[in-house]
Design brief:
Shape: globular
Keywords: Membrane, Transmembrane, Transmembrane helix
Organism: Neocallimastix californiae
Membrane topology: Multi-pass membrane protein
Number of helices: 10
Strand content: under 5%
Largest sheet: none
Pfam families: EXS (PF03124)
Distance between the termini: 59 Å
Subcellular location: Membrane
Structural class: mainly alpha
Length: 256
Amino acid sequence: ARLWIIKVVIRLICAPFYYVRFADFFLGDQFMSISYIFTVIEILICAELYNFKNMEYKCNSSTSWFISIVTVVPGWIRFLQCLRRYYNTHRFNPHLLNAGKYMVGIISILLGTVAKVKGKYCHLYLRVIWIISLVATSSYSYTWDVLMDWGFFQKNSKNKFLRDDLIFPTWSYYYVMISNLFLRTIWLFTVSPNYWGVIKNGNIVAYVTALVEVFRRFQWNFFRMENEHTNNCGDFRAVKEMPLPYNIENNSEDDD
């Protein structure tokens, strides 16, 4: 398993040069949700340099360009993977549309970093553009989750707002649609003044937001894998029951 993960990570790093398989972009999506863990590296290095003294003032991660770069890397890898898949398939939908989703996310991260670095000197119009980009990212990503990754809102489906082939209990699909919407908009806390007066420490907000994203990805994985499996069964790349191309009639009488 470790060797397999190492191989996939190498394929992620060399995203444009390898044919992208399901495992490649699936693991890439996992890294999208744990990018906060990578940002802690800078804090640890800074804390070590200052002997863990006055970290709040000397190791302020909220105004660091390094944090922005590290956070952007997983999205950039997924963007390159989408371009590679378009190169192999020449399909605008879904590959270039998916690439657009990650590019919008990258832009929102960079705009957010500029706004935080400038702080009170940041112009109002820049903050407005940043918030608009966050709304666009959340809307784009949520729509993609529901329509493409999970395959919901299938036309003429026997399950309202869902799809025909379901493995989990029906109520769980409606739950994940609603919960995913709220979890996708958790960023509202990070752009609100004084975090709505609930939490004063920005590091706590960042930590809680990261935990929420990990939970969102955790439940996303189940329905993404389920949709992939049912699609594979539909295309006969995996098997539930293989239908025969002809009917079999049971004859109770002997031919003799």
